[in-house]
Design goal:
By secondary structure, the protein is α/β, with parallel strands linked by helices. Helix content is 45%, strand content 21%. The longest helix has 18 residues.
Length: 307
């Protein structure tokens, strides 16, 4: 996509927005990431926070609160004053799946309001270069040669990555030893070190490691996973965005949304996000993000009930 055209398109979204004064006092805005430092969400949001700080004069500071499939981070955000000083870096796992699947989550997806989309990313199955398979279809033969099941990592229960593993098992007829982690950073280190055979990660996690020859991609799940009716399903994409607690006043929402859109309009940021494997939303994607989140709540609620 032409970065100039994208900047103009996002600029059109910004133009009608009156920019009120910051409703929260102090120079800092806390951007809460529901995973440990070093993962894909952390990497993407650090870049966006830096750009938002440049655009606004406020300092957007990341706070990493991992655990309970993102629920701990959401709980923290909902406990803070709804004044626009605390923002959640949310995704499907933390915003939708955690309250559906984690009994102790204590919140509903509708307790949060989306401000804007930061990006999209495919999910990929990765392995260390030494694994005796170049694709998912070759995994059964690799397991047979080893004489034992392969281990498969995922960044936490009740995540899209975790839900993908039984689909892979059924499609291949291959049992896997599922190994949960608290986020992706430790998991990929174990993968590179030979302590884990394969893992399901968001593409921004894999991109720099594949470029350095430390990992290889066996499949992109959006292109590989079958639909229940057979054939191929629509791409399995994860999204990430900024959210605030529902009681946050409209002026605070507007000011934060304007900060995000101004940051994403920077060509340099767009290039850095795309280099990580994170798709940058266009103006139309931004306008329908709230509707996308609402639709996904229904989609994943049905999938959970059907399990």
């Amino acid at each position: 996509m032409c970065f100039h055209r994208l900047r103009l398109a996002i600029g059109c979204l910004l133009a009608p927005l009156a920019l009120p004064a910051w409703p929260c006092e102090g120079p800092l805005v806390s951007l809460v990431v529901p995973y440990p430092a070093g993962g894909s969400m952390d990497a993407v949001m650090r870049l966006v926070a830096e750009a938002a700080s440049e655009e606004t004069g406020k300092t957007f500071v990341l706070r990493n609160i991992g655990g309970v499939s993102g629920a701990l981070a959401v709980q923290h955000v909902l406990r803070q004053p709804a004044d626009g000083c605390t923002v959640l870096a949310g995704n499907v796992n933390a915003v939708i799946l955690a309250p559906l699947l984690v009994p102790q989550a204590g919140f509903q997806p509708t307790d949060l309001v989306p401000l804007g989309q930061v990006g999209t990313a495919d999910f990929v199955v990765v392995a260390a270069p030494g694994l005796e398979a170049q694709s998912l279809e070759q995994l059964p033969a690799a397991a047979h040669r080893r004489g034992k099941p392969l281990s498969a990592g995922h960044p936490g229960h009740e995540t899209l990555q975790h839900l993908a593993l039984p689909l892979i098992e059924r499609q291949l007829g291959l049992p896997l030893v599922r190994v949960p982690y608290k986020g992706s950073s430790v998991m990929v280190n174990d993968l590179i070190g030979g302590h884990l055979d394969i893992a399901v990660v968001a593409e921004p996690v894999a991109t720099p490691l594949v470029a350095r020859g430390q990992l290889k991609v066996l499949a992109r799940l959006g292109q590989w996973l079958p639909s229940p009716a057979g054939g191929r399903q629509a791409p399995l994409l994860g999204w990430a965005g900024w959210f605030v607690a529902a009681p946050t006043p409209a002026p605070a929402r507007d000011r934060l949304q304007a900060a995000l859109l101004a940051a994403l309009a920077q060509p340099a940021l767009q290039q850095r996000l795309q280099a990580l494997g994170s798709g940058v939303p266009d103006a139309a994607g931004q306008q329908r993000f709230a509707a996308t989140v609402a639709a996904d709540i229904g989609v994943y609620r049905r999938r959970v009930l059907e399990r």
